[in-house]
Design brief:
Length: 239
């Protein structure tokens, strides 16, 4: 006996399949849209994160630049203060025989080539004689005698003119070096090992940039009161 086919059941199944098909496609579309939205959010978050990272980097760079600038300003300020504290003085450097000496350039009035002075009978052993210059009579002294140095040939030397108690005096030197710049910190007290007869005429010992040592003379003490009286007593005929 043949099985009876129920057409109504078949029709219901087909209608059910028709209704379920669009729903399935809609779900797929929704899934795809959600996935796209999720990816879009991720991209946005990534971009936002990159933007924030770039902003942070810019801020760090700005802070570093500001710190460097501030450090430079501090360094410049410190350098300025050091320059203000560390005074640089200029001296006139010269050789007495082979030893290097210098005197404060503030007291030097002129430098001339050595000329043999005229002996006018001045008793002081330090005074060699006088020279007639355009500014008047000049007493010439040889300070090598103060340091027990040998008196060698003078013809290639120079005369440094300074003022002593309103009296012009020329100091003979064997060789003129020129301007010597010394920082105040590099001028030290008189070393104890120097001979006693030298110490009273010396202000200190300077250390030059090239590492060489130069003796700083106290020119005000090179002449005694008696030497000054002798120079001031030069006959009027020579003045």
């Amino acid at each position: 006996m043949k099985k009876k086919i129920d057409l109504s059941e078949i029709i219901k199944k087909k209608e059910k399949q028709k209704r379920s098909k669009p729903i399935s496609e809609k779900k797929k579309k929704n899934k795809i849209n959600k996935k796209k939205q999720k990816e879009t959010r991720k991209d946005k978050e990534k971009n936002d994160s990159q933007k924030k990272g770039n902003q942070v980097k810019k801020q760090i760079k700005t802070l570093v630049k500001q710190e460097i600038s501030q450090n430079n300003r501090i360094k410049m300020a410190k350098t300025k203060r050091i320059d203000e504290i560390t005074e640089t003085k200029e001296f006139v450097g010269f050789l007495l025989n082979n030893e290097e000496y210098c005197i404060d350039s503030d007291y030097v009035r002129q430098i001339i080539k050595y000329r043999k002075p005229i002996d006018v009978g001045i008793k002081s052993e330090l005074v060699n004689g006088i020279l007639n210059t355009k500014d008047g009579v000049l007493a010439v002294i040889d300070v090598r005698k103060r340091f027990n140095l040998k008196e060698s040939n003078r013809k290639d030397g120079s005369i440094i003119i300074v003022n002593y108690e309103n009296v012009r005096v020329g100091i003979f030197v064997n060789y003129l070096i020129g301007i010597v710049r010394l920082e105040s910190d590099n001028i030290k007290n008189i070393p104890s090992f120097l001979p006693e007869h030298k110490m009273q005429y010396i202000k200190g010992v300077g250390l030059k940039k090239d590492g060489k040592i130069v003796i700083v003379l106290d020119h005000n003490k090179l002449l005694s009161e008696e030497d000054i009286r002798e120079i001031k007593s030069i006959p009027e005929d020579y003045k």
